[in-house]
Fold this sequence. Notes:
Layout: E1 4-9, E2 21-26, E3 28-31, E4 38-49, E5 53-64, E6 69-80, E7 85-95, E8 100-111, E9 116-126, E10 131-135, E11 139-142, E12 145-148, E13 151-155, E14 160-171, E15 174-184, E16 190-193, E17 197-199, H1 203-228
Amino acid sequence: MKKVFLFLVLISLSSLSFAEKIEFSADSMSGKTGGESGTTSLAGNAFIKTDSMEIKADTIELSGEEYRYITALGNVQGINQESHMDFNCNTLKFDRVTKIARLEGNVSLVDKDNDVNAKAQIIEYNQELDVATLQIQINLTQEDNICSGAFAVYHKAQQLLELSGNAQVKKGDDTFRAQYITLNMETQDITLGGNVRGSVKDTKDNQEKELENKEEVKESEEKSENSNE
């Protein structure tokens, strides 16, 4: 089937406070192409680009007044141009008015500005607030920090991470556990609350012990040499 290429410019959007250009392409399309309320479905190598988002998926559906809602299904990949976020997931729902995206199923979200990689089964990202909410099987990494918990809120602009529900942060050889943990990812300051526990490796003491052991070995060798003489 010949690939269908479509280009749409929305000159005036009554439901939005601005005009936004939408580009999209796919192997096939069904539904309305005008700005009226309705549904347009793109199937096979579906692609859509708005002023802030680029999305690829097996299928993409545009619905609501002036294509307010975007739903992508299957092998979803995308880029948020405004926040410099890359993402992968099984399902994506994006509201172009509220600028809220809900990603579900094996979600991976990468903050390229701060080298932060987040994985979860559900991530909701509010583009206006620059805040991501993570749920289920959370794993977030940044530098040598490995963070996990039942629920997390990542404030991108403030570089602040809030973890709750069996929260854990591993920093190199150190481990911190609590019911809730707040981590400033810029200063590396950490705050723990509720059933706090953990383990910290005392690098200085270990280095001193290692030096003492080396000195003891050296002294033993010198004594052995002197006794042989």
